[in-house]
Amino acid sequence: MTSNNNQISGKDESGLEEVHYRLNGALQTGPKMQIIICKTLLRLPQSVQDFVYENCMFCEVGLDTGLCISKNWPGPHDWLIVLGSDADESVIAHEIAHSLKGHKRERIWSEPDSNEVFVQESEACEIVKQWGFTGPGTEAET
Ligand SMILES: [Zn+2]
């Protein structure tokens, strides 16, 4: 049975259902991306998971790029994490790392070549590696 792959069935996916429940309302993405986000959360330290439940909201844009941004957002969640449709777990973890460290991406747009960009990207990639991820979210690209 592969038809259930894109749904939270909860039976053999330990913890996935609970994470999905706790993120409910903060997941403004398609069902596939919701599962990838939940799986990412399960790989994070508990304190980081709690930070995400408290502060992060996720949405998905239909771009085929790996572009993800996080931004201050007024309301119950301070951070809006915008994910391209091809974002994988390492990319999601990367954006969570930015929000955790309070990196302000707005400044990056205005100063694309600044040293601060490099420092923030390296820091985010380092954190993602420490969490045990591999993939594009661990590679600094400025
Ligand atoms: Zn980054």
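^ zinc ion complex. The longest helix spans residues 115-130. The chain has six helices and four strands.
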